[in-house]
Design a protein that fits this description.
The protein is an alpha+beta fold. It has a domain of 82 residues. The chain has four helices and five strands; from the N terminus they run βαβααββαβ. A three-stranded antiparallel β-sheet has the order 2-4-3. Strands 1-5 form a two-stranded antiparallel sheet. Strand 3 and strand 4 form a beta hairpin. The longest helix is centred in the middle third of the chain and has 10 residues. The radius of gyration is 16 Å and the shape is elongated.
Amino acid sequence: MQTKSWADPEKTTTWRKYVKKLCKSCRGTCCSLPVEVKGTDLVRIGLIDSFELEDNPKFIARRLMKEQVVEHYHGKTETFTLARMANGDCLYLDSRSRRCNIYEQRPETCRNHPHIGPRPGFCAYIPKSP
């Protein structure tokens, strides 16, 4: 009997030990996890200008929530959670190629995944459909 070789993104115990070669055949499951970003990430992505970092982050959050690119703001940590599409995918994930549309500008969270995150060193690998 063959066992399922992919993970349930909601259950980190099902995640696979990360090896770089998995990314080539993965459907970008990590891009359906919530992405927490800081103000500097918002600048890199192009959602705010660098001079806006001096503004009250609550005002930035309100504006970006209205624009539907941020779904949550955590005041204590000054962390924004990027909005996701109805299917749970990141706004910046191309639905056909399953590749990031802003790869060079991607947030630190994405740059450091899976070394940081819900289960460091593991990924929610799901292979691309044949």
